[in-house]
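Posting this for the archive.
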Amino acid sequence: MNRAPASVWRNPIHFLAFGLGSGASPWAPGTVGTLAAIPLWYGLAQLPLLTYLALLLAAFALGCWLCQRTSDDLGVHDHGGIVWDEFVGYWVTMIALPVTPLWALAGFVLFRIFDILKPWPIRWIDRRVHGGLGIMLDDLIAGVFALIILQLVRWLLG
C-alpha cells in the first residue's frame, strides 16, 4: 500500500510531483496518476503541435527537478506516489493522436503496459540512471514505445 507523506498537501513541489495529489492514492498510484493525466491531455491536445511539444519538453525538464527535489525531501528514491513521470509519459504516448475516448483509452493501456513491464531498455535505464532524470526517463521511453505502436495503428487504419 502506498503511504503518501502529509507534505503532499502542504508543499506545492510535492503536490506537483505527486501528480496534483493523484499519487497519494493508497492503491496503484501510477495507474491513478496516469488516469489523472488524461483530462490535462485533453486540454494540451487542443494546442498546436509545436506548442504541445514545447510544453511537453518543459514538463519533462520540470519533472526532473520536481522528482529529484521530492525524492531528496522524502529520503526515498522514486517514491511510489511520485507520478509526474506518469503524466509526462502519458502525454508523450498521446502526441498527435486524435482526441477521442478510444485513443485516450488505448494510450492509457499501452503506456501502463510498458511502464509496468519495463522491457529493455526501460528496465536497464530504470536501474542505472538515478535521480530526477532516472525517474523521468524510464517513463519517457515507455511513452515513446506506446506512441510508436499507436501511430503505427493509426497509420494502418488509414
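Helices lie at 7-10, 12-17, 29-44, 49-74, 84-93, 101-117, 122-128, 131-157. Residues 114 and 142 are 5 Å apart (CA to CA).
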